[in-house]
Structure to design on (230 residues):
């Protein structure tokens, strides 16, 4: 039988050796460039992180961070938020857009925590996604940031766009992208990969005007046509 080459398929979900090497190089360079990258949503506890992440849908982190201080001052615990009136919450989160549906999700989330989890944020994916307003992306954020649990890879617009540019996925579907990234990235890097790629998308690999000459990933970016793997 012929020997397996470097480009042969691995037994793990059809991921090739070159894909793993590319992913490894990308992870190392991102870690060197953004060693302190972390979640941009300001929070003091898991409850606040869940609420802030719900508000971040189709809204900038900066806007959310301007909105949440007043929200958390009035409703510092799930118990207090669960007793709030819809109209009162709407006024506090109006600047985040889609404020009616977000206020409804916040109230539902708080009531779910109080009624089913003694007011505490659960530490498992299945329980989290049952809370109103909490999808898989939000659950991954909360588990990764608040508890250090790598339940999956958070796929936001930056992760979606840049992971495609880097050849780590060919899909535009966030669920498929997440599966592709989970297959090729070491599990210990699932949490930091998203944070660092988000920082990279905001600082260098900008959608409209990427600063390619300043990019630490330039030599492994298929878009440029260079590929010396480390």
């Amino acid at each position: 039988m012929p020997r397996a080459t470097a480009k042969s398929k691995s037994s793990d979900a059809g991921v090739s050796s070159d894909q793993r090497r590319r992913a490894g190089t990308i992870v190392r360079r991102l870690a060197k460039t953004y060693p302190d990258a972390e979640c941009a949503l300001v929070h003091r506890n898991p409850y606040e992180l869940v609420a802030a992440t719900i508000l971040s849908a189709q809204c900038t982190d900066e806007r959310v961070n301007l909105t949440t201080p007043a929200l958390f001052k009035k409703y510092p615990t799930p118990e207090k938020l669960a007793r709030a009136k819809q109209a009162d919450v709407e006024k506090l989160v109006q600047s985040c857009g889609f404020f009616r549906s977000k206020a409804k999700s916040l109230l539902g989330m708080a009531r779910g925590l109080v009624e089913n989890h003694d007011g505490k944020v659960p530490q498992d994916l299945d329980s989290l996604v049952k809370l109103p307003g909490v999808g898989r992306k939000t659950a991954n954020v909360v588990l990764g940031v608040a508890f250090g649990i790598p339940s999956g890879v958070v796929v936001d617009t930056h992760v979606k766009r840049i992971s495609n540019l880097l050849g780590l996925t060919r899909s535009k579907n966030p669920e498929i992208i997440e599966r592709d990234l989970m297959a090729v990235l070491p599990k210990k890097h699932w949490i930091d990969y998203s944070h660092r790629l988000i920082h990279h998308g905001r600082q260098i690999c900008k959608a409209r005007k990427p600063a390619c000459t300043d990019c630490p990933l330039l030599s492994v970016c298929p878009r440029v046509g260079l590929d010396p793997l480390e």
Observations:
- Confidence is low (pLDDT under 50) at residues 1-11, 226-230.
